[in-house]
Every structure is written in structure tokens, then in C-alpha cells.
Amino acid sequence: MDVSEAQLEALAADLGAVLRRQGWILATAESCTGGWLAQVVTSVSGSSAWFDRGFVTYSNAAKRDMLGVPAETLMQFGAVSEETAREMVRGALAHSAAQLAIAITGIAGPGGGTPEKPVGSVCFAWALAGQPCASATRFFSGDRRQIRAASVGFALRQLLALVP
After folding, report:
1. What value does the CA radius of gyration of the chain take, rounded to a whole number of Å?
2. What's the distance, Cα to Cα, between the start and end of the chain in Å?
3. Residue 120: which region, alpha, beta or left (left: phi > 0; alpha: psi -120 to 50)?
4. What architecture (CATH level 2) is domain 5-162?
5. Which residues make Cβ contacts (< 8 Å) with residue 14, sequence separation at least 6?
6. Closest CA relative to residue 127, chosen from 89, 164, 97, 155
């Protein structure tokens, strides 16, 4: 599914309206999307009222240093895993003023895929502070841009579904 920038910005604006009503703050932890989710969120005027920060943790070292992802998790499950995404979201909540966070880690291609984790494999985790996090893995098709855009779109939809 090809997602346009306008669609992503509309989802971000909807999310911002809901977060503003709840009085909640968002943080993001991104790997394969390289900060695209934070960029879309901050494209919404007034997002400083509901967005605290975005962590771009492309390398394993950044995941460890900035978010506290244990080296053991990365070694046992890999950077592209729900286990790592859950650690990333916990770290985003712990290192921000946010009540809500989401993490994205995956393989956007065109290289880097394996039979077990093909190009287009993207793992997500999201959580409200003080509550267990949820996670999911999705497989997106297309080129690098399409996989990344689909990942940002999925993340925004998951956040919208989470917030009452």
C-alpha cells in the first residue's frame, strides 16, 4: 500500500488532536524510518504541545546508549524483533516526559533481508506509561520509500487506536 505524505500528515494531525484532548505527550523511537515519524508529527502546527522527542537509533550502539536496549536482547533476537521494539519503547518512555511512546525497527531494503526476516519486515511496539507494551510485526512490500511510509502510517494508526 502506497501511503502519501498528505495521508501521513492527516493521520498525525488527528493524533495530535486526540493527544491534546487527553493531555498526553508522545515520544518516538525509530530505526528503519530514520526519524520520519517524528518529522510527520512535527509537521503539524502546535505539535510541541503533545510531542516531547524522537529518538533515531539506527545502530545497535544507539539503541543501547540512548534507549537502554540490553545487548543481550540484540544478540539473542536481533535489532529487527518485537523484543527489541519493546525495549525501545520502554526506553523512550523512561528517557522522556511522554505518557505514550512507539518504536519502529525493521528492514526497509533493498538489501539486508534474510529468509527469516525478509526486506519489508518491520517490528513495532507501543505503550502507555505504567502499562504493558504491545507489539506487532508487519511485512510491507514495495521499495524502500514505500516500506518506510507504510511503517509510519501503521505506527500512526496504532497510536490512534490506543488513545481513547
Report:
1. 15
2. 26
3. left
4. Alpha-Beta Complex (3.90)
5. 160
6. 89
pLDDT band at 131 (very low <50, low <70, confident <90, very high): very high
**For residues 41-54, average pLDDT:** 98
Grid cell in block for residue 71: 545487548
Beta strands across the sheet bearing 134-139: 51-56, 26-30, 100-106, 121-128, 134-139
Mean pLDDT of 1-7: 87
Residue with C-alpha cell 493531555?
23
Cα–Cα distance for residue pair 139/119, rounded to 1 Å: 8
pLDDT at 1: 60
Question: For the segment 137-161, what is each residue's pLDDT rounded down to a tens digit?
Answer: 999 999 999 999 999 999 999 999 9
pTM of the model: 0.97
Q: Which pLDDT score is estimated for 73? A: 98
Amino acid making up residue 153? G
Q: Are strands 121-128 and 26-30 parallel, antiparallel or unpaired?
A: unpaired
DSSP 120-146: TEEEEEEEETTS--EEEEEE--SSHHH
Q: Which helix (H) or strand (E) holds 106?
A: strand 100-106
Measured distance CA(36)–CA(54) in Å, rounded? 10
Are 20 and 50 in contact by the 8 Å Cβ rule? The answer is yes
